[in-house]
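Sequence only, no structure available. Ideas?
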Amino acid sequence: MLAPKAFLDALSGHASRLFNGETPVPRSEFETQFKALLQSGFSKLDLVSREEFDSQMAVLARTRRPP
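Reply:
I predicted one. Tokens follow.
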């Protein structure tokens, strides 16, 4: 798992290279590359989907109800 600060540092470095590269990158290509960069970075973090989070919150709420 990548630490949040390291993730943000890597993300800003990659974005800077894409944005300020020697040859300008067309906007659509930049968006595609940036999305791929974000997906790669997020896959290294310990994240859960909203659906999984909501499901676990419901389970927790049921365990806290009085019998």
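The CA atoms of residues 16 and 22 lie 11 Å apart.
Hope that gets you unstuck.
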